[in-house]
Structure formats: structure tokens, C-alpha cells
Amino acid sequence: MLSSVEESLEESLRGRGRLVLASGVIAGGKTRLLAEISRQADESGALLLTATGVREEHDLDLAAICHMAANAPAAASALREIAELAGGNTPSGPGHVRPALDHLVPSVSALLLEVTRETPLVVAVDDLHFLDQASLRVLLYLRRRLATTPMLLVLSEWDRPGLPKRPLHADLTRQPDRKIVLGPLSRAEVTHIVAGPGGPPTPAADAYALTGGNPLLAHALAADLRAEQGSGAASGSHTAAGPHYRQAVLDCVSRWDPQLMPVARAIAVLDEHAGPQLAAQLLDLQTEPVTEALWNLTAAGLLCHHRFRHREMATAVLESLPPDDAARLHTHAAELLYEQGAETLDVARHVIASGRVPGRWALRTLRHAADHALAAGDSELAVRCLELAMRNCEDERERRCYRMALIQVAWRVNPSAAARHLTPLQGALRAGELAPRDAVPLIRHLLWQGDRHTALQPMQAISRATSPADARAVAELKLSFDLIYGSRPTDPVHPPGDALSPSSSGDQWTRALTAIEPLWPQGATEETIRSAEYILQGPLEDTLPEAGAVALLTLCNTDQHKRAAFWSTSLYEEAVRRGATTWQAIIGCVRASLALQRGDLVAAEAQASAALDMLSPQSWGVLIGFPLTHLLLANTGMGRHDVAAEFLERVVPEEMHDTVFGLVYLHARGHYHLAVGLPLAAANDFEQCGVLAKARNIDNPSLAPWRNDLAEALLRQGQRKKARKLIEEQLRHPGGRLQPRTRGVSLRLLAAVGSPTERVPHLTESITLLEAADARLELARALADLSQAHREMGDLSQARLLARRADQEAKACHAEVLPTLHTSVPERSHTKPADQQDGNSMTALSDAERKVAMLAALGHTNREIGHRLFITISTVEQHLTRIYRKLKVRKRTDLLAKIPQPYLSENSDVLDSPPALSERGRLHASSSH
């Protein structure tokens, strides 16, 4: 391109004048090209005269020639004469009178030709389309004398194919010697400009989308990128669009044609609905000038299919709108789209952007749009719709409806945010002015915050509702109450009998809600399971999280693990798509419960942790015990006792302890105490669980098998008779008989208090049940106990095989290896053990840890300890890690000082037992057995 210009310049210097015409779109690089040509001309020794057409000087005769003369070198005397001839014709203000200078055109033209007698002349004029008529006549005069004149004319014009040129403009540019048509830059060219020579790689697609191949935008984008890199800001994966870019966008739509800016603003406001007709209606213009402006903006690379090519372009234009103009345009856009029957959400977005409600039609639109936004998972948009409608509604009853809807939305994403909308409705709730369906969210909030006493009166009031339409609201509230507080008919704040039970004549959904209510006190029947799945199949937006949680727990607690896993995953993904944060948090806790049941401690910890972080403590209220319980159990199971202790130190609402979630939290704390060697504290926690479970009529082992756990705590204290009584009671309990997991654990514990001949059958049945229930962690414990039983019977080969399998199961669960529970725990005696008599800290260790500590203190290697105790080397290492921490030593040579000699004497059977078979012997024994 520049090579042809260089040829034209050389020919002009030899006395054969040439005309070079550059044509292009808005900001297409014409000015930059003329600047390069002017530089070459200046270096050649020719006299360079430059001028730029200005729209405001379109009617000012010889304005461009005057600028040309003013910019000329001081040595050009002829040009000074031109300036003197027309010097009074420069604009000085709005009231300036423009004298006619047509009569000077021949004189000015002759003076310019006179210049060429002394030196070659290069005349460069940018934006020819804005030149005044007199200046065009001068250039045309020169154009007709180029053939024998050492002069180069370089002109640039805005390419507007749809519009005819003025006659003088057309004559001047007809058949140029060289014509350069400037099109958009290629993707590679844009990337090169934006990245710069030797610069970092730039996403080509992103840069091209931001510029559309427009050189002005590309160079502005490059300037922003250099500024970002110079400031030390971290550059992301996307090209930066900063102030230089935004100003360049505004230049493209404001400098060339006054019609471009309003059209660009209309396009930015209308967004996906933009088009010539609608934009013209929005601006109250004819379609033709709008169509022309759209063509020019598209040619400049800003638009594509009547929309801005990139959101950053539209943002720059919208930000330039004065607030009042923006509100007016959005209001008018909403009216036009509403009249055309556009989507409700699209109309509502313009109403929200305007901040005004132009009529009742807009109120209805905002209400419907909120429903659509919720269905699409956009809770933020729903809130904005409802808040604007509530602020602009004059009817108090309608305003209450909008407030109720806002409360419903807040429950989906942030329950604590509902509080500010609840206060104005408290009086109406106490006065019984709210319909049951409207009262439910307020009562639920009170229940979540632990305020049962305040909730009592409205609960009793809506329980008397007889309308079938209210039956579902009553059933949902009953379900929420039972989930949080259990079912306790003697509770003074619990409505007596069936006061909150809807009529059995309700619809199928209501009957399904009612069917899953007795989950805690009675266990679940086949009808309950079918009802649970019916509820889980319902639309997410029409179901309370409590209903979904109870339905899932119904499946979990009846060993329908595959169904529960399927529905929990399905519901969680649906909640994510719809932005229902509260749903995600509640279902996340249920998923953690499922993971715990199958022994996947890592997954349980991750899911419970994510759920806890989704809601603030204020939003969780008393339900914060739900995720905390699973975090305690998961971390305790993995031996991360320090982490579990941190969760125990978290402040929880006092009211939580009087709820179902307080019960399960207490149960989890008991497991922590048991794991860290505090069986007395654990027994106290489990006993309190039993008291609460019975008082709340939720004595269901699927919720908290406190009898089994209390029996284990008693076994660790040597209270075998009390432990046996609890275990047998659990086996007779309806939940204990029906649930394989609970029965399997009971049989494992029963083996620990039974005679040697009873252990193997009990443990074998326990393992069968736990395998069927997919309870891997409990299975690992049962396998370890069975291994120890075979060892005591002298069947070392079988003992090793079972120990290896127990270790594998524990590793799969990422679980801490727990001690076995059989006859190594003696009946409690009134005589203190030797280690307690000597004040030693050996009581902090479990039985298995004591054995490992004694052998390690006497110098046995990890492999030797493993052979003696029939455990793997990795298990020995785990035991030693905990031993060092509990005894506060750093190495095994320090252990002997921590173990008193009397304790070693009393446990000499461990030290004197023969080592296990060698590795080769074990393999041989396994194969022969």
C-alpha cells in the first residue's frame, strides 16, 4: 500500500503530479495513513501542506485553505499572502458572520501553483467530506493542473456508499491516480497491534471481538494493556479494556456524525432487541437516518447484526448517558417492548434500569418477571423486580404481597436477609391477618431461629384453617417443625394431637407431605418411601428445603442408599442451576450424611464444609448443628481430632441444644470424646442423647443410635453388664431390628461382651449385615474385632487375613484405626490400674496404642510390632503418631521414661507373646489355610 504512494511521490517530484485517494470507514486508519505519507513527503524535501476538514467549518469559505496556510513553514511567502487574503475567515464563535470569499478562489489557487515553481508541493487533506465549498474549488483547480506540476495531492474521505457526494467532491475524487481502500484489520493484525512487538501473547478472539478490526480501537486497547502491565497489575486471561478503549469507542460514535451517538445509545439500551425500526421508534426518528447510522457503525466494526460486537462497547456508550436520559430511554424501551409483546423478563429489565414504574402494567410485569427469574435461577433479578414494585405500589395489600414474595426469595438464597421484610409483618401475623400460605415463611423463620414460643400462637391459628388450598401450607409447616424439633405431643409449644395435620382429603402432594411426617418416631414404611420419592420428583421452586431434606433422609434411614444418592445429586445440581443457595446447603448436608453412612469420610467432610460456608451463621440459625455434626464425625473418624476440636469450640445458638440438630450434635461430640480417650465424657453425651430422643419422641437409631454408642463407652470403662443390657435393648428396638447397619453394629458390640465361643458367630453376622448396608467404616471395625477373635482362638492365618482386610477398609475410608472391643477390656474394678497409681499419662492411650507404645519403648521395630500384633506397618506408624502427641514426646527412645515399670510387668503377656510368622511363613499359612 505505501509502496504505491512512494511511487506517486517520486513521480510528482519529477514534475508529473499525482492524486492519491484513501477511502475508509469511521476510524478506519485514514488519518494514520496520511500521517505516514506526510512523513515521507517531508523527508523528500517537498513542501508539505496539511489540513483537516471540520464539520463545524463546512460553511466557512476557504477555512481548510486558511488552516493549510497557517500550518505552512514560515519561509513560504506565498502562503503568508494567502493567509492575509483569507485570514479574517476563521470561526470565532456562534455569532460569527462568515464573509463570502468565492472571489478569492482564483487568486489563492494561483498562489499555490506559484509555490510549485520553487519547490515540489505535497498537499494532504484529511476528512475531505467536511471541506467547505471554496476549499474544494481550490483543490479542484489544482487537480486539473497536476499533469505538468510537481505536486502530490493526498486526500482521505469517509466511505459512505449509501449517500451521494457533493458535485465538487465527486469531481475532485473521480479517477484518482492511486486509490487506497482501507478495510478492517485482520485478526492477526489486531493481535500484533494489541500485543506489540515482543509483547506477551494476547487472546486473538478476545481482542478481535473488542475491536472488530477497527484500528483506532486496536491501538486504544494496546494502550490500556501497556498501562496495566506498567502498573504491575496481574493480567488475566482476557485482554484488558480500560479508559483508552472506552474513550476510543465514544470517539467512534461522536466525532464523525451527530446522528451516530443517539443511535449508538439506542442500540446499547435495546441490546438484543435492537433493530432499525425499534431504534427509530425509541428516538422518535425516521427509519432511513437510523438505518444509515447502523450501516456506518457496522462498517466501523462496532456492531454485528444490529448489536454491539462486545459488551464493553455497549457499556462505554451506556456510561456516557446522563442519568435522566438513561431513565427516559429505558422507560420508553420498556413501553415499546411491552406493546410488542416481548418477554416479561426483557421488559422488566428496562423498568428496573429506569428506576421508574410508568403504570400498573409495569407493576404486573415486575411481579411476573420475578416468578420467571426465580424459575431461571436468577434470584438477584427477582429481588430487584419485587423491591421496585413494592416501593412504587400505593395499595397496602398489594405491598404486603410483594413483601411476602421477597421473603420467599430471601429464603432461597439467604434466610437471614428475610428478617428486614419480616418485621413489618409481625403485627399482621399476631393479629391473624395473614393467610396460612403467607404465614408459613414467617413461622419458619421463627422456628429456624429457635423461637418456638413466639411461633406457637400463629401455628395454632393456621392449624384451624379448613380451606383445601391451605392444606399444603399446614403440612409444610408441620414438616418443618418436626424436622427441627421432633415430634413431642407433650411439648407445651407443640399443638396437641393432629392440630397441624391437614385433612386426608387434600391433594396427592399434601398427602405425600403428611406421609413422611412420622419419620423420626416410627421409622418408615413402603408408603413413606413412595411418598418421599413423589416429593423429590416435584419442582424445586414449589418445595421447601425441609421437605426435600426429610424425603431424602427417609430414603437414607431405610437403607435406600442408591435412591437417596441419585435424588440428592439430582436435587443438588438443580439447586445450583437455579441459584437456590439454601437448597444447596441443606442438600449438601444430606449428601454428607450419605457419605458418612458409606464410610467416605473425605467426601463427607468436603460436602459438609461446603454446605456450612454457603450460609452465614445467622441464616443457619439452629440448623447450624446439621453441617457441624457431619464435620465433627468426619474429622473424628479420620483421626483429625484437633480439627474436630476447633468445630466444637464454635459458638452455636443456645436454642440449638433443644432441637433435633442439637441432639445429633451432642451425639457427634460423644464420638469425639470416645476417640480422644474420654469415655466418661462420651458416656455422658450419649446418655443425654437418649434423654432428648425419648423426650422428643424421636428415639430412632437412624437418627442417633445412642444405645450402641453408650454401650461402647461403657465397654471402654469396663462396665460390661450395663453395656450388654443396652445392646440387647437396641437389638429389640424396632429400628434396630429393621436397619442392617444398626443391627450390624449391635452384634459387633455384643461379641465384645460375649463368651469366646459367641464372638465369631456374632461378628460373622455383623460383617454380613454391614456389607449389605455398604457401611465400610463399621465393617472395618467388625473385621478388626473378628481378626482379634481368631487370634485368641489360635487361628493366626485367618487373623492375619482379616486384619489385612480391616486395614484396607479403614484406609479406603481414610479412617483412624480403632482398638478392638472384646475381652481385653476387663470388668470395672475398684482398684486403680498401675499407670493411674503412678500418675502416668498412659490412660490417654487406647488399648492398641498402649501395646504399640510398650513394644516400641523396648526397641522393637515397626515391622516387628506389626508381626506381633497382627497389624500392618502403616497402622503401627499411625498409632505412633498419636502416641507421640498424647505423651508429648518426639522420638521412640523417650517412650520408656513415660511407661512405669509396674505397667510393663502387668502387661507382660503382650511383651512375651511369640512374634508372628515371617512374611514367607504368613504367605504359606494363608495358602494352606
What key attributes describe this structure?
two-stranded antiparallel sheet, single chain, disordered C terminus, mainly alpha, 929 residues
Low-confidence stretches: 92-98, 489-505, 823-839, 912-929
> How large, in whole angstroms, is the Cα Rg?
43 Å
Beta-strand share of residues: under 5%
**What is the helical fraction, as a range of percent?**
55-70%
- The side-by-side strand order for the widest beta sheet comes to 2-3-4-1-5
Q: How does the major sheet shape up?
A: 5 strands, parallel
Q: What's the tally of helices?
A: 52
Question: If you average the pLDDT, what whole number results?
Answer: 82
Class based on secondary structure composition and strand pairing: mainly alpha
Envelope shape: elongated
Strands, total number = 7
Distance between the termini: 91 Å
Offer a quick outline of the entry.
The chain is mainly alpha-helical and 929 residues long. It has 52 helices and seven strands.
Can you walk me through this structure?
There is one protein chain. The protein has 929 residues and is mainly alpha-helical. It has 52 helices and seven strands. The strands form two sheets. It has a five-stranded parallel β-sheet with strand order 2-3-4-1-5. It has a two-stranded antiparallel ribbon with strand order 6-7. A hairpin with a 2-residue loop joins strand 6 and strand 7. Helix 11 packs across helix 15. The longest helix has 18 residues. It is elongated.
